[in-house]
Design goal:
Elements lengths: L5 H6 L1 H42 L2 H32 L8
Length: 96
């Protein structure tokens, strides 16, 4: 991927579409885990706001740290899935 000239990709509509399809497929491989991570981030925000308004930081600290760890794990797995897709399916641009 590093040896591809970006101006050559943009000038040709077929190569641009192949480039977009490739990155769309890589995101699709990681999308279930990204969805889980976004849901966990929303849970973290909700717990923080609850603790802020109810003065319960000490009571929710363990649950918040577990949610944060799960968020990191989900994002890590999403990154590994996108990386493994890109490694298994190298980018092939027509006409270059």
């Amino acid at each position: 991927m590093l040896d591809v000239d970006p101006y050559m990709v943009v000038r040709n509509s077929a190569t641009l579409q192949a480039y977009r399809d490739y990155h769309r497929a890589a995101r699709a491989a990681a999308q279930p885990w990204i969805t889980i991570a976004v849901a966990l981030a929303l849970v973290q925000i909700a717990m923080f706001l609850y603790a802020l308004f109810h003065n319960a930081f000490r009571a929710l600290s363990l649950v918040e740290s577990l949610a944060m760890g799960a968020f990191g794990l989900a994002m890590g797995i999403a990154g590994l899935r996108a990386w493994s897709y890109r490694r298994a399916h190298p980018l092939r641009l027509p006409g270059i």
